[in-house]
Amino acid sequence: MTKHKISSKIFLERLANFELKIGYTFKDRNLIMKALTQAGISSKSNNENLEFLGDRVLGLCVAEYLYHKFYLEKEGVLAIHLGILTSKEVILKVAEDIKIQDILVYARTTTDDKSSILSDGVEAVLGAIWLEAGTETAFKIIQKLYEKYWDIYQYTKRDPKTLLQEWLLARHLELPVYDCVEQAGQKHNPIFKMEVTSGDKTVSAVGNSKKKAEKNAAEKLLKVLESAV
Fold first, then answer.
1. Rounded CA gap, 88 and 94, in Å?
2. 51, 123, 166, 219: which is the annotated catalytic residue?
3. What is the pLDDT of residues 134-156, one digit of tens each?
4. Residue 117 DSSP SS3
């Protein structure tokens, strides 16, 4: 396994630049080094637990923001916005903004795994800030890092499954359950039939993959539900 390592001198130089980008200077160098070390590098001193903590800190900060901004919205709508703003895709944008890839110490891996490593690294850093400086400082930094992403939910294209879930959550109805009821066709050209159920409503649809069939079924059920209103 190849590893992305940085010499001590370069690390300190990059750390200074990194701290300028996030707007916070760590007093405990061991803490920030731990936050920036992926588990694949060290089994004893890595950022897994800090990532766990930072995930909750980020979620709480975003939830508080949504609570105040959308105080008239139903809980289900807030949950949809929370899911988007704390998704790996948005956290990865923050990771790119602060160039965490230049300082994070991680095992080289696939592109998809690297994306997870970078987004986990952001959460670990947030967890470390919360530990050292407390909630108020952590929230201020998150608000700054998220400044251009707060309204991203408005521009996020949601697929039929997400739209269906949002519609059901907003009305406090049962969430959809998907089930593959049939598979046909050749190995190189399969056809899947998926059923989706919410309450007493069930519809089915087909597609050349389970994912596509689920989307088709979700779109179909959403039309049925909307027509019944």
1. 10
2. 123
3. 999 999 999 999 999 988 766 55
4. helix
Would residue 123 show up in a list of annotated catalytic residues for this protein?
A: yes
- Single out the catalytic residue among 51, 55, 214, 219: 55
- 178/209 Cα distance (integer angstroms): 14
Give the C-alpha distances (Å, rounded to integers) separating 114 from 31, 61, 111, 123, 196. 22, 25, 5, 14, 33
Report the DSSP beta bridge partners of residue 180: 194
**Using only C-alpha atoms, what is the Rg of the chain?**
22
Residue 4 pLDDT level (bands cut at 50, 70, 90): low
Closest-CA residue to 81 (of 144, 29, 27, 158): 158
Domain borders along the chain are 3-154, 160-228
- Phi, psi at residue 179, to the nearest 5°? -145, 130
- Answer positive or negative: Cα dihedral of 21, 27, 31, 37: positive
Which CATH number is 160-228 given? 3.30.160.20
Structure tokens at 216: 């088709």
The topology (CATH level 3) of 3-154 is Ribonuclease iii, N-terminal Endonuclease Domain; Chain A (1.10.1520)
Q: Which of 165, 173, 178 is nearest to 81 (CA)?
A: 165
Q: What are the residues whose beta carbons fall under 8 Å from the beta carbon of 19, sequence distance 6 or more?
A: 25, 26
Residue 212 pLDDT exceeds 70: yes
Angle between helices 75-85 and 48-69 (to 10 degrees): 140
Contact between 118 and 104 (Cβ < 8 Å): yes
Percent of the chain with pLDDT over 70: 91
For position 1, what pLDDT does the model report? 40
